[in-house]
Specification:
Length: 286
């Protein structure tokens, strides 16, 4: 009698494919698919996010503590906290933050593109877009008031209407969308070629984007942009947004009929502003 050798049958019920959407991860996908096909397995894909740097956690926790202290001392004061929003991707953090927070706090969170690649490139941080988007949704779950901030520069203008559409479709709950003229400070002057764009050049995109948001009932404003550079149809969205201590008007402005209505310029824009700034002396001069 011949002895039968029992062969071990290999089976994989589930195959886990981890990816960070890099080229290396993408190269592994066909192998994962072919193994899954061969063994009739279920293919699970997982995308793991890198936690934000520890110093961001510290900064926002310090701000949260300050907000809590203010909640006790001045519960009726309106507060605005600027944050990249990435930390709110963590459910437990958002839950605790909102529970302990000031009742009149609005979180200002920047979003620079509807494309994760473009947003991550602008903020120079991998996975920033994914984390910010997740954070926005976590905050919505807790009814936390959020403002989305978009800085208008050469890298954000090309897809501004697409970003407006994306904001409307994905974050209709935000209390405000601020489209903000570029402040020529910090890294901006050193990266002028890459970032600076004359507002006179992007009025079509700006008008279209504001229209996309405003006609759908979203609260949208234009910050830091001089009235003589804006289309008349956009004037009603323009706000005097520059803090007093860094707000200036040019010599040209002194004779302008709309100086009282206009928010003027940043002090840092004295040497870096549009050549199209021109006083309204009468309505026929423009
Ligand atoms: S000239 Fe000056 S005050 Fe007048 S609209 Fe332009 S920036 Fe504003």
């Amino acid at each position: 009698m011949r002895t039968q050798v029992a062969h071990k049958v290999i089976a994989f019920d589930n195959i886990l494919y981890a990816t960070d959407f890099s080229r290396q991860s993408n190269a592994a996908l066909p192998f994962a698919m072919s193994i899954a096909h061969k063994y009739g397995s279920r293919l699970l894909a997982v995308h793991v996010l890198t936690p934000p740097p520890l110093e961001n956690i510290k900064t926002i926790e310090v701000q949260a503590l300050e907000a809590q202290a203010l909640r006790e001392a001045q519960p009726n004061t309106d507060l605005h906290m600027l944050t990249n929003g990435r930390l709110f991707a963590w459910k437990a953090f958002t839950r605790d933050f909102v529970a302990a927070n000031h009742p009149r706090l609005v979180l200002g969170i920047p979003l620079y593109s509807d494309s994760s690649t473009a947003h991550d490139h602008i903020v120079q941080a991998k996975h920033a877009f994914d984390q910010t988007v997740m954070g926005l949704h976590q905050l919505a779950r807790h009814n936390a008031p959020v403002e989305i901030r978009v800085v208008l520069h050469r890298l954000t203008i090309p897809r501004l209407p697409q970003l407006a559409e994306y904001i409307y479709r994905n974050f209709p709950f935000v209390v405000h969308v601020a489209l903000m003229g570029l402040e020529p400070t910090g890294y901006t002057p050193r990266n002028k070629e890459m970032l600076w764009i004359d507002p006179a050049e992007y009025q079509d995109k700006l008008e279209e984007s504001v229209g996309i948001l405003a006609t759908r009932g979203m609260n949208v404003s234009i910050y830091n942009t001089q009235l003589c550079l804006l289309r008349p149809s956009l004037w009603k969205f323009a706000r005097k947004s520059i803090s007093d201590w860094k707000n200036i008007y040019l010599q040209e402005c002194q004779e302008c009929e709309v100086l009282e209505q206009c928010g003027g310029l940043f002090q840092s824009a004295e040497k870096m502003h549009s050549p199209h700034i021109r006083a309204f002396r009468d309505h026929n001069s423009h």
